[in-house]
Each structure stands twice: as C-alpha cells, then as structure tokens.
C-alpha cells in the first residue's frame, strides 16, 4: 500500500461546497466552516458550486491545491459532490474529507462521520488520513454504489421528485414506485470473472461498496464489503410490475436478501457485456455512480480500486447503523 499523504502543519482545507445539497441553509453551512477553521487556525479556501462552476472542475482544482500545499480536499454536499471530489482525490492520492449534506449519507455514516456540520467539522479538523476502499466502474470511482438498468433510471427520475417535493426519504421511495409503474425492460448480460462467464437476465444490476446500505435492505453479502477487498452485486430476476413493487417494499423492510427472485454475489473484479440478442448492439449505456447518471461504453468493468482513498477521520470513529 502506498504511504499516506503527508499533511502540512495546520493543513489547509480546500472545500467544494454545493449550495444545492441537503435541507439546511448553505449560508449557515459556509459560516460554520469559516468559523471552525478560524478557531482552529486552519487556512481555508472555499469553492462554491454555481454560476457556471461545475463540480468536477472545482474538485480537480481543490485536489491540485491540496497536493501542492499539503492540505485536504473536502466535499461539502450530497453524494454527487462527494463522489466528484473523491474521484479526483483517489486518482491523485490526495487526502480527502467529507462534510455530509445529503439525504442518506451512507458513505459518511459507515465511516463514523456525523451529519451535524459542527460535529463533522471537528472530525475533519482532528482526524488523520486513513485508507478506505473505493469501487470503480470503467475507472470511474464510486463510494456507495454503481448500477445500470432500472435502478439507474430510478435515481435519474428521483431528482425530478426531489426538485418538486424536497430531499426526504419518503420522496425517494415515492419516486421509485412512480418509476416502476411506468414499466421497465429486461437486460441480458454476460458477467465474466476469473475465467468463467454467467448469463444474467435482469432489469437491473446493482454493485455496492457500502456495507450499511446492504445491511439496511437485508442482503448478507454486505459483510464481505465491510471486511474489505470485495464488492457485492445484486441482480433481480425478470419480474412484473407488482412483483417488483413487492421487492421494493421488502427492501424497505430490510428483507430483500430472503426473496427468491434476488441473486447476490461478491467479487473483486467483473466484466459486464450485453449478450447476443435482446441487449446486443448497445455500445453505450446509462450508469449511475453514487446517484450521478452518465453514459459509459460497454463492456463495463467493475472492480475494487487498486488504490486506497485517504479519508481524513478520527481513529475512534464508529459506523452509524441507525
């Protein structure tokens, strides 16, 4: 494993702040960050998303500055913001920090980073870089999950619901049901690993890197993710709309893993290609990484990243299960 990034004394923070994330006031978040850094004597550079400034560009700038000055590139926002900064930090070997502002905050919770801004700031300002596992799909990092098919479409359409009704858990659940009622297609996929290939017919392939998310839906393979060195996948067998709605309800109750129409497995690296027939000819597909949907070329290569993500957190941090 490579050495941890060296932080300068009073390591400066380079924060990418997404004003559109979370339910609180962005101005209050900014003021809290500025006040905490002032009190700790830590230099701060804030890069605010908006007015034509895209998150990936700001993330790259934050990482470049952090590397040059022995500082920390920090994401203050939801999953999309965290993913963008983490992707840049992972590739560069830069120290990475999180001030979670999202709806579910799976990544920060599994690493014991509290949601209240004052508490997450204290964790960041008193923490040290520690290696944590990231996943990759076609070299794009993901911290929580990556998916194609129905789940990716659910995430894409969920953003419209959030814009109309707010960023709450019941809104996400209602958006999922609305997507299911529209209908969905079945994919035929060749999944290759270790010299062998299996054919999956499924409306969605979900690959996770977050033990807490698997635990909450009741899939045991999440334990392999928590132990480290593996990702876990879920594929649903072909189903009708009512049966699929039933599976969504089972997931909400934490009983998805016991359903007969659910296949799950763990791996370190797989390659996914559209099989001859129903899905053949599709060279580019929509893939969601930590909730952000983008086009990717087939085949899709999912793997545990060979590089650690150097997350700044306290040594005594405990995962939040609630």
TrEMBL record:
Keywords: ATP-binding, Kinase, Nucleotide-binding, Transferase. The keyword Electron transport does not apply. GO terms for molecular function: ATP binding; kinase activity. Residues 8-141 form the DAGKc domain. SUPFAM superfamilies: NAD kinase/diacylglycerol kinase-like. This is Diacylglycerol kinase family enzyme. It comes from Pseudacidovorax intermedius. The lineage of its organism: Bacteria, Pseudomonadati, Pseudomonadota, Betaproteobacteria, Burkholderiales.
